[in-house]
Automatic annotation (TrEMBL):
Keywords: Signal. It comes from Adonisia turfae CCMR0081. CDD domains: PBP2_PnhD_2 (cd13572). This is Phosphate/phosphite/phosphonate ABC transporter substrate-binding protein. PROSITE patterns: PROKAR_LIPOPROTEIN.
């Protein structure tokens, strides 16, 4: 198991659509209703601006409503730990986790990963370490004594693998650099570009999309290093859903080819995945011996 722990008594979840979410798992619901609800709560990871995520994924809502003949409530939690907590309380029917947040959620919830983002024929991606050009940070030795921006403490490509990549280069958080957590990948990139941090770690696909849309100027930010391949973000479902519904959900994702739905995910489609595909995440967590209790309030 990953040697990463969440604090007990974490703050309650803050969600877009929280009223509907809070009411969707009433204690009077029958087992059959819980297994095959008329409305499915679908959570997306808050790795970028929440309002933008909700707006950009209305196509997903429409696709799932048509494919599953269910109402869909799309939610974005305030942070990764809130999403893990919501899953552990049975408040999410489907959830798009990051690899690390999935592994953490799996220790607290009965979840099944069933699909992951497919891009260029691969279900893998990478994390990168970036540096501020004006500060002259363009290799590992320049990071010594500097501030390194990271995303959420439970982020795979904006925390776990950046710290692992830095550790492999002989740089440890708290000893060789000061880590600051900014919550989201785009915040990391902007902090490095603006000089508020001299280096940072984030998902390469997200960084490339920020460059493509003009948010990040590649003349101001340089890529210092790239991580080993990481298994893509998994789609998960509650294990206690009705078997027929679960099969319909798998089909709705694995046969999806609508570019308007896939666009926000920067995906060519979704491919089948299972829990064992994330054992490398567990190994990375063990290597760093991370304790999220330091960061989760």
């Amino acid at each position: 198991m990953v040697s990463i722990k969440l604090k007990q008594g974490m703050t309650s979840i803050g969600l877009i659509g929280v009223i509907t979410l809070a009411g969707c798992t009433g204690s009077n619901s029958s087992t059959a209703e819980k297994a095959n609800p008329s409305q499915l709560v679908v959570a997306l990871l808050p790795d970028e601006d929440a309002a933008t995520i909700i707006q950009d994924n209305q196509g997903l809502v429409q696709h799932l409503e048509a494919a599953l003949d269910k109402e869909i409530e799309l939610v974005v939690t305030t942070d990764y730990s809130s999403m893990i907590e919501a899953a552990s309380n049975g408040r999410l029917d489907l959830a798009y986790f990051g690899p690390l947040s999935y592994v953490l959620a799996k220790t607290k919830s009965d979840l099944e990963p069933f699909a992951a983002r497919l891009k260029g024929g691969s279900t893998m991606y990478t994390s990168i370490i970036i540096g501020n050009v004006a500060a002259g940070v363009d290799e590992f030795t320049d990071i010594e004594g500097q501030t390194v921006a990271l995303g959420d403490p439970a982020s795979t490509s904006s925390r776990l693998f950046p710290e692992l990549t830095l550790a492999e280069a002989g740089l440890k958080s708290g000893e060789n650099y000061e880590a600051v957590f900014l919550g989201a990948h785009d915040a990391v990139a902007l902090a490095v570009q603006n000089g508020n941090a001299q280096a940072g770690g984030l998902s390469r696909p997200i960084f490339e999309s920020l460059v493509e849309e003009g948010t990040i100027d590649p003349e101001k930010v340089t890529i210092i290093a790239e991580s080993e391949p990481i298994p893509q973000y998994p789609w998960t479902m509650r294990s206690d859903l009705d078997p027929a519904l679960k099969e319909n959900i798998r089909t709705a994702f694995l046969e999806l080819n609508d570019e308007s739905v896939l666009g926000p995910f920067k995906a060519d489609g979704f491919a089948a995945m299972e829990d064992k595909d994330y054992n490398g995440i567990r190994k990375a967590g063990d290597i760093l011996n991370l304790d999220l209790g330091e960061f989760v309030q």
